[in-house]
Design brief:
Blueprint lengths: L5 H25 L15 E4 L2 E4 L4 E7 L2 E6 L5 H9 L8 E3 L2 E5 L5 H38 L5 H34 L2
Antiparallel strand pairs: 1-2, 3-4, 4-6, 5-6
Helix pairs in contact: 1-3, 1-4, 3-4
Length: 190
Amino acid sequence: MSTPEDFPALKKDIKHRMDQAAEVLRKEFAGLRTGRAHASLLDPVTVEAYGQPMPLNQVATIGVPEPRMLTATVWDKGMVKAVEKAIRDSGLGLNPAVDGTTLRIPIPALNEERRQELTKVAGKYTEEARVAIRNVRRHGMDSLKKMEKDGHISEDEHHRHADEVQKLTDQSIKHLDEMLAHKEQEIMQV
């Protein structure tokens, strides 16, 4: 009566979806400016190039020569002014200096108030990821109930599998908490 291949597929799907929630959080954390240079800091910048908006990384090479400096080497000399304007107008609080086809972009130090703000934002992102993981868990538990109701698994198997789903959930939440602790430490570092 029991079909052993049902739960491994469900478990794999649950793990995959929980890992995706952690990956989304990692990407959101990458966008939080910590006072240290990181090439992904310029990911949201779009440049008006050849009559259409383009991501900055499609018109220039982004480099990180120093911990508090980014460089953008523009491929087309005629695009330098547009790239400079796009970075200034991006809302990131960056002020590039033009040096030929290279823009030097110093990363200003964060003040204490801004650091506190960023830790709150990081906490909010983490809570959203936790909610996503709990939703995956709930979906998995509902699927197990349905499998038991339909007679595909016994009550004992249901409880055993539910424990495995809970273990996956706990591991994923712990991983998110570790990511948050690391990000908060990075933000508060002067």
